[in-house]
């Protein structure tokens, strides 16, 4: 679905990507992690054809995104972190925007809106920011676009909204779709995403499926100084040391994606060496 080769992109004299490579197929929910300002939003916009590479090649769904052909635009949707909605009702919004997506499912939209408990009669501008976010998530999913790009989708959602978001997204994915989610709120998506991408200093420095992470790395709490000394990453607290260890004995553990992110950005060579 996405094939990026040697991507270079910058804002003026400030480089963002310097030779980034990425391939993404269907049937997966990817979490895109990185520090603020590392280019998560810029990558989504390059993939969606809203920004244009200075060098390299991007192929999205078989198209060059920058050409913004109608056949491409109806198959990919980008949900930005922030947006400004017009003072119209949801019914009018659907009437104006749904026809651009040939696969749009009105019944599915109303089902998502009901699950999110969004009032559909007021004007969009009369909704709270969290309700607006839920409405746009519902619209994005109802397009049935094969590729869904989401930039910080859980920002503005309350605890119940985040839980409902995870449930709805998990039910929406199938073998014909891919969802790429940029986030810095890793805990919100820990039980949802099945592939982790981490970008830093203009490069994709980590790219692994969750199953491989659980296979190669062991996450545990320990009071053993020997285990701490042999760990790939360690965080100490009064509850003991939270460790990432080589999983040499194929033990089961639940990956802590926040710890993994810190470990990768601190020492990417050491962590990536476990996957060779």
Model description:
With 276 residues, this protein is of the alpha/beta class. It has two domains: 2-201, Rossmann fold; 210-273, no CATH class. 33% of the residues lie in helices and 28% in strands. A six-stranded mixed beta sheet has the order 5-6-7-3-8-9, sandwiched between helices. It has a three-stranded antiparallel beta sheet with strand order 2-1-4, covered by helices on one side. Helix 4 (106-116) runs antiparallel to helix 5. The radius of gyration is 20 Å and the shape is globular. The model has no long low-confidence stretch (mean pLDDT 92).
The counted number of beta strands is: 12
Question: What is the share of helical residues?
Answer: 25-40%
Q: In the CATH hierarchy, what is the class of the largest domain?
A: Alpha Beta
Inertia-based shape: globular
CATH topology group of the largest domain: Rossmann fold
Poorly predicted parts: none
Which strand order do you get reading across the main beta sheet?
Answer: 5-6-7-3-8-9
Number of helices: 11
Q: Quick one: biggest sheet?
A: 6 strands, mixed
Chain oligomer state: single chain
Report mean pLDDT, rounded to a whole number. Answer: 92
Order of helices and strands: EEEHEHEHHHEHEHEEHEHEEHH
End-to-end separation = 25 Å
| CATH architecture title of the largest domain | 3-Layer(aba) Sandwich
SS content category: alpha/beta
Question: What number of domains?
Answer: 2
Mind telling me the CATH superfamily name of the largest domain? Answer: P-loop containing nucleotide triphosphate hydrolases
């Amino acid at each position: 679905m996405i094939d990026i080769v040697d991507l270079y992109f910058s804002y003026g004299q400030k480089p963002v990507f310097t030779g980034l490579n990425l391939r993404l197929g269907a049937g997966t929910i990817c979490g895109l992690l990185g520090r603020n300002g590392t280019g998560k939003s810029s990558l989504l916009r390059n993939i969606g054809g809203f920004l244009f590479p200075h060098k390299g090649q991007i192929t999205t769904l078989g198209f060059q995104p920058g050409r913004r052909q109608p056949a491409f635009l109806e198959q990919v949707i980008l949900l930005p972190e922030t947006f400004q909605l017009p003072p119209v009702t949801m019914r009018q919004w659907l009437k104006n925007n749904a026809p651009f997506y040939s696969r749009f499912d009105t019944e599915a939209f109303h089902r998502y809106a009901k699950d999110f408990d969004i009032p559909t009669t007021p004007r969009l501008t009369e909704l709270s920011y969290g309700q607006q976010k839920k409405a746009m998530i519902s619209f994005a999913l109802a397009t049935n676009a094969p590729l869904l790009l989401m930039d910080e989708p859980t920002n503005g959602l309350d605890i119940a909204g985040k839980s409902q978001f995870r449930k709805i997204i998990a039910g929406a994915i199938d073998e014909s779709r891919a969802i790429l989610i940029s986030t810095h709120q890793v805990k919100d998506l820990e039980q949802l995403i099945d592939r982790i991408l981490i970008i830093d200093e203009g490069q994709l420095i980590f790219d692994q499926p969750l199953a491989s992470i659980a296979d190669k790395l062991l996450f545990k709490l320990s009071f053993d100084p020997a285990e701490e000394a042999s760990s790939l990453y360690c965080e100490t607290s009064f509850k003991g040391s939270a460790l990432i260890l080589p999983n040499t004995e194929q033990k089961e553990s639940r990956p802590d994606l926040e710890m993994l992110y810190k470990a990768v950005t601190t020492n990417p060579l050491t962590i990536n060496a476990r996957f060779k």
